[in-house]
Inverse folding.
């Protein structure tokens, strides 16, 4: 399916009626993001540019403020026939503006048991980080906005997520050695699209966004309008809840570091048993995330905590599936084993 070009609006204003064009709404958000902390703008500033509305508005704002520093990074996922058109239209748009354009093609097919969205996201971040490092970029800016943040929080709630999920998307984070930023989380999608249409800027619409087989698309099409009807202007409220969850998770991470200084890493079973069950769970989540980027399900973590509680003899064996590997007992400590490793006795 080919990408759907968004038509430019026609105008019939007389010269006396012409008013100064409205500024790009991404501009103030961009300034706030850079004012809140590093990185500096001495190096190139990369924008993850899909050729869609959100990344187009962001790319134009960065180009307006730092025309000699901006670079566009495009990831071709190869998951749909329209992907070739996205790439060619994005390249042509950047050529007209004189913006350097770099593209990377990835095989984003998902593994068994992995969601297609998660597989594509992980490979996209890796590709963006690799291109940014090749270009010497200070950071990679993402076009995710207030609607994306609301969708992420609703998706987390529907899955019974804990605080990391309810914290939704961070404004600033590091992955694969590169700083990523989301300066537009306070801006609704409608504001960005209206500005682009008013000023006649081209962008493409991804046809898969209308596919209701994807949970996020159903949330966007069905839940967000219902929330807007019941709670007008709800997006800042959901964003506030996400920030509260993020702050609470930061405190739990700090507590996990304090407790891990006592339990060690890998954690000593006896030292774990000296903590409350809730603090044991917090330490184990933190440890698994640190060593394997793994997140145990609620059922897996409950079973692991039960096994730790029952581990009162030297012969008690632990070998539990957690995320992509196994948590096992090795002497007096817990260890994380990748698939294929032989569990200790």
């Amino acid at each position: 399916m080919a990408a759907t070009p968004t038509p430019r609006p026609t105008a019939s204003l007389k010269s006396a009626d012409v008013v100064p064009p409205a500024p790009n709404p991404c501009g103030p958000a961009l300034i706030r993001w850079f004012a809140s902390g590093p990185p500096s703008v001495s190096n190139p500033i990369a924008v993850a540019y899909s050729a869609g509305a959100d990344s187009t508005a962001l790319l134009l704002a960065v180009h307006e403020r730092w025309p000699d520093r901006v670079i566009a990074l495009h990831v071709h996922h190869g998951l749909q026939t329209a992907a070739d058109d996205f790439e060619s239209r994005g390249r042509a748009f950047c050529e007209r503006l004189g913006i350097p354009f770099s593209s990377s093609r990835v095989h984003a097919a998902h593994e068994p048991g992995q969601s297609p969205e998660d597989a594509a996201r992980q490979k996209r971040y890796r590709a963006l980080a690799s291109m940014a490092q090749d270009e010497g970029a200070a950071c990679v800016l993402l076009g995710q906005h207030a609607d994306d943040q609301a969708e992420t929080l609703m998706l987390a709630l529907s899955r019974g997520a804990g605080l990391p999920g309810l914290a939704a998307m961070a404004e600033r984070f590091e992955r694969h050695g590169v700083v990523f930023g989301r300066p537009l989380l306070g801006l609704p999608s409608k504001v960005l699209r209206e500005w682009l249409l008013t000023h006649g800027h081209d962008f493409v619409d991804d046809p898969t966004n209308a596919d209701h087989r994807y949970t996020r698309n159903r949330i966007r099409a069905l839940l967000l309008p219902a929330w807007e009807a019941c709670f007008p202007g709800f997006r800042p409220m959901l964003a506030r809840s996400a920030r509260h969850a993020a702050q609470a998770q930061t405190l739990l991470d700090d507590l996990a570091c304090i407790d891990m200084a006592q339990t060690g890493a890998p954690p000593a079973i006896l030292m774990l048993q000296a903590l409350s069950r809730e603090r044991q769970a917090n330490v184990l989540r933190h440890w698994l995330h640190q060593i394997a980027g793994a997140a145990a399900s609620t059922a897996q973590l409950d079973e692991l905590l039960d096994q730790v509680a029952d581990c009162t003899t030297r012969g008690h064996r632990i070998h539990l599936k957690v995320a992509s590997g196994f948590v096992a007992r090795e002497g007096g400590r817990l260890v994380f084993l990748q698939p294929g490793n032989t569990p200790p006795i």
